[in-house]
Specification:
36% of the residues lie in helices and 17% in strands. The chain has 400 residues and is of the alpha/beta class. It has two domains: 136 residues, Peroxisomal Thiolase, Chain A, domain 1 (3-Layer(aba) Sandwich); 244 residues, Peroxisomal Thiolase, Chain A, domain 1. The protein has a nine-stranded mixed sheet with strand order 3-2-4-7-1-8-11-10-9, with helices on both faces. Strands 5-6 form a two-stranded antiparallel ribbon.
């Protein structure tokens, strides 16, 4: 039987424009915090799996990004694997870490996701993000997304714009519904000391902000950010902590299929269904959820793909208050990508750090009372019509 795996340590930096911090220093801070939180030392770590998406394009640092960060954190000589998988880079790194422990090759693995995106022209960063799509198909896909335009301000926001318009057509979601996702998550982010934006917004502010790719406005779109998050995973038979462990019940990584060959069921739903089957739970068992809301309306779509509600019922679920703090299944209690920030390579780990914090009962003013089972959905890249990758992870607080 595969070994059970617990998350025994979690660390995260504040997200935002960290002009005083490099990629390696951000990563080092998160890794040191996670190791300390686990009550371990660097000598206890058998492997580092490092997730980063864009350093090679933005800074030229290819190939050994994790080794450079490990040296900064006092982890030199520890075996390092580097994982690059678009926005799912660090959740994919968790997938790799689980395989390493379950195989019996390693007992304790440190996972870190980090990204440094600020300090460069916005155009440079947006172009780097576009490398998460099939470069040869971008002109063709752009024309299809926009109805003929050759260029857009942000390729990925054009993708989310098309997805949003299609969702509105089939669900009846209004502009107010789209804005209300950002309003909800801004209220959550205001309670998160590590969030990039910590001010609750009104519907009028969200709708009145600058249009990016209609119907998306600036305040519905995730910002450019710097940050890092880290986790310590350990074989459950070695975890001698006195606190209730956070067990990894499932971690499923899926890849998209482009063009006419893409299945009728979207990648996120396929991946979530596999994760539910692996964990032996269903959407009705979830207490807290993190979804990849790179654009706020995507949260409405994910309600349905994850089975939190029926098809076309996302706006109704949002309006009921069920996905807000105090509701039946709070979604993005840390503010999500739009308010917490989206340093691409760090996002997958950041979602899991939030779930661990919630399941331990340490989330302060944003705590979901009695949270026991949490799910994170993290998608990235684009193959049209599927994302390039999606990871769905389910965690459970074990014990009393």
């Amino acid at each position: 039987m595969p070994r059970e795996v617990d998350i025994v340590g979690a660390g995260i930096t504040p997200f935002g424009k960290r002009r005083d911090m490099s990629l390696r220093s951000l990563a080092a801070d998160a890794m040191t915090s996670a190791i300390d939180d686990a009550g371990l030392t660097p000598a206890d770590i058998g492997l580092l799996v490092f997730g980063n998406a864009m350093a090679g394009v933005l800074t030229g640092q290819e190939m050994i990004r994790g080794q450079v960060a490990a040296t900064e954190a006092g982890l030199a000589a520890i075996p390092v694997l580097n994982v690059e998988n678009a926005c799912t880079s660090s959740s994919s790194a968790v997938h790799v870490a689980l395989a390493a422990i379950r195989s019996g090759m390693y007992d304790t693995v440190l996972v870190c996701g980090a990204e440094k995106m600020t300090g460069l022209p916005t155009r440079t960063v947006l172009d780097a993000m576009t490398s998460g799509a099939d470069i040869e198909r971008i002109p063709e896909v752009t024309r299809e997304l926009t109805g003929g335009a050759d260029k857009v301000e942000s390729f990925f926001m054009a993708v989310y714009s098309q997805m949003t318009r299609a969702y509105q057509a089939r669900s009846g979601a209004t502009a107010d519904d789209l804005a209300d996702v950002a309003v909800k998550n801004s209220a959550h982010g205001a309670l998160n000391p590590n969030a990039q934006y910590r001010r609750a917004l009104s519907r009028e502010e969200v709708l009145g902000s600058r249009p990016v790719a209609p119907p998306l406005t600036t305040l519905m779109c995730s910002p450019i950010a710097d940050g890092a998050a880290a986790l310590v995973l350990r074989a459950a038979d070695l975890d001698n902590s006195e606190r209730a462990p956070v067990r990894v019940r499932a971690c499923v990584l899926g890849s998209g299929v482009p063009g006419a060959d893409s299945p009728a069921i979207p990648l996120e739903r396929r991946t979530a269904q596999a994760a539910y089957a692996q964990a032996g739970v269903g959407p009705e068992d979830l207490d807290v959820v993190e979804v990849h809301d790179a654009a706020s309306p995507n949260e409405l779509i994910m309600y349905e793909e994850l089975g939190l509600c029926g098809v076309g019922e996302g706006p109704k679920l949002l309006a009921s208050g069920a996905t807000a703090l105090g509701g039946r299944v709070p979604v993005n209690p840390d503010g999500g990508l739009v308010s917490r920030g989206h340093p691409v390579g760090a996002t997958g780990c950041a979602q899991l750090v939030e779930l661990v914090t919630q399941l331990r009962g340490r989330a302060g003013g944003r705590q979901v009372p009695g949270a026991r089972i949490g799910l994170a959905e993290n998608a990235g890249g684009y193959l049209h019509p599927d994302p390039a990758a999606c990871t769905v992870t389910i965690l459970e607080r074990s014990g009393a």
